[in-house]
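hey so i finally got around to running both of the ones u sent me last week. sorry it took forever, my laptop kept dying halfway thru and i had to restart like 3 times lol. anyway pasting them below in the order u listed, first the sequence line then the structure token line for each. didnt double check formatting much so if smth looks off just lmk and ill redo it

first one:
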Amino acid sequence: MIEIKVPTVGESISEVTLLKWTKLEGEWVERDEVIAELESEKATFEVNAEKAGTLFRLANEGDTILIGDVLARIDENAVKPEGLPVAAIEKKEEKKASTTINQAAVTSVPNDLKASPVASAIIADKKVDPASITASGFGGKIMKNDVLDAINHPGKKAFAGNEILSRNVRQEKMSNLRKTISRRLVESKNTTAMLTTFNEVDMTRIMDIRKQFKDKFKENHGVNLGFMSFFAKACAIALSEWPTVNAYIDGDQILYHDYADISIAVSTPRGLTVPVIRNVESLSMAEVEKAVVVLAGKARDSKLTAEDLQGGTFTITNGGVFGSLMSTPIINIPQSAILGMHKIQERPMAINGQVLVRPMMYLALSYDHRIIDGRESVSFLVRLKELLESPELLLMGKDPVKTLLEL
């Protein structure tokens, strides 16, 4: 019997949280197979089986475990079972039950609806609008009682997992990641002279380019042409022209960075993470989009490493995906500035004496006034607006006609 201990993941980290087991109790595991996922205050990481054998779990999901503690044991002398593993058998049985219950025509239930087989059958039979149902199952899954509550109490909704008129109060331990987020946000507010300046950008040209080239871009590069590549490349150019926006304060020194490592704020079910795209100034638009997809996927699946989260020089956060029209983002220390993107909204604009409807986005730049002056912050944001409203400038940072005329 060998012991699987919680590995050391950093000098300052003394405990981790067990996010989930990827193998069942008593299940056979192969050598180097992932058996669990852990979360420290900085990142998530996987634990692998050191030997093949039968797994015996010694902790529960959600438990806080000290570095060096025994997480599990593996009986390497156990005999490997023949046929399907336990997990596969359970999934097969679950699929069989689901198929049996859904024998009745449930074609009126949307294919992408997350509901248990019994709940799906009742929704179809009673013609219940799924939008009127409050889901209580894991990951937003609709359960049988949720459908019955919606039928018995039309027009009334309860919080997930509770009854109508519930007065229930739940207590839940704060995760290591949430503790770190809380500490860093308070530290940022208390240690920086934070100020926010605003501007707005006309997104017409970028939206036209995406509409015209999105299919060809996807065909050539295998990735969608999003907004983030335009903003990341524009920020890289503006950061090179206003270096204090890309700098840190370190004691009585200022550390300037001659490169743009841009952190992208990503919201996950466990909290906000800020993975880094390195050397954005040297990447193509497709390379930026691919990096965004990879990092977002790793964040969603809790696969981000400490290396993915370290070393950013500037941050971009996009509250617009959630519908935010304007906000004042908090600086991601030790950085000195953060750009907030927001919802694109059509508004009437006065252009050359005419009132035209244009897709507009508010931009917010929060910055540390100890190192960045008002002139620099405003000029940075104005330059960003210029680059985004004339995307051809992103190619070399200058107007092609002025470059031709050497102006």
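and the second one:
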Amino acid sequence: MKIRIARQTFLARPRPTQTSTGFQRSPHPRFLRWLRNTFLVAGVLTLGYSGFVLLDTRLYQASQARRFQQQLESVRPADAGAVGVVALPVAPAPGRVLGRIEIARIGVAAMILEGTDERTLRRAVGHFPGTPLPGQSGNVAVAGHRDTFFRALRNVQRDDEITLMTLAGSYRYLVDSAQVVAPEDTQVLDDSSDRILTLVTCYPFYFVGPAPKRFIVRAHGITE
């Protein structure tokens, strides 16, 4: 009786479905193919978006640099020894072009916009609202992404010359120091009675994801 029951139980089990080539294949290879294709599509979309952002940034910088140069030529005074004649507003509108920053020795060159929001920093270097404007006394503070405009700051050295060009004039600074601070260490943006310039970017430069620290470059204004 026991043998009979065991035999019936065995016969009641569903048999594997057979195909022309043998037993039916496991569904796992199909899932792996789907997973592979999903990752492939995600990778292509990511690369496509990164390419779009890079192209948009380059086109924006080129167009703004060309427009800024035309404005410089239109307001340039007849006296070659004089500085510009157009005063910058006390409180520039967000996204307004303020000028151009150059650090010739390390190859930094980018347009400066008012504001430090993500859209602004994606397209340009951003001026911290509330800090003095280029040419004014105090602590002029600007920020840039470590993987684009300010990547070369990793090579900055003491006495490197930084130039801020605006429609109101061209202002020169010499680098005094570079340091790494925590994100909450905001006293680097504190105002000063002297003409100084503070550059801010994330650190480490090759960190993947949101960087945990900030790289600060401090420079003092010089005159001819």
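quick thing i noticed on the 2nd:
The domain at 27-224 is CATH 2.40.260.10 (Sortase; Chain: A;).
anyway thats it, ttyl
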